[in-house]
Amino acid sequence: MTDAPDSLIPYDEIVQEALRAVVGRVLGQVAAGGGMLPGTHHFYITFKTGAPGVDIPQRLRERFPDEMTIVLQNKFWDLKVEEDLFSVGLSFNQIPSTLVIPFSAITAFVDPAVDFGLQFQAVVDDEAEPIEPAENDSPEQLDKPAVERNEDGSNVVTVDFGKKK
């Protein structure tokens, strides 16, 4: 079997961006509908608390220094969706808080009401380093992109791309 040729098109980044747009579209529809979730839909959204653009209260950042999962179900307010981020009001230990979360910080989105979920690679600062020209990449450093369906029959889509160094 021959190795796949190096791609000059960043397919992995394009797919990640498109899947994150699904989250934005779903949240945008909820916001446009007055912030009411239809039927029994509810969302678990996991994000990197230290990702660029994340704005959460310091007490939450101290409690969740790496990653945090929020639930949008019954008690949330002021859901606002922009092109690259969303903001929402939630209570933590009965203290109201506003969270601003860029879509690039999201690592998982799940709607358990319909057994749907997406998982993303975390966007971290060390991944923002310049990419070397393709001819410098050796074949053993490249992994083929894989979109896998969970064996349990759920609708979780996992996107796993190898990181070029």
From TrEMBL:
It comes from the Bacteria. Residues 141-152 have a biased composition (Basic and acidic residues). Pfam families: SspB (PF04386). InterPro entries: SspB, SspB-like_sf. Residues 127-165 are annotated as: Disordered. Residues 127-140 have a biased composition (Acidic residues). This is Stringent starvation protein B.
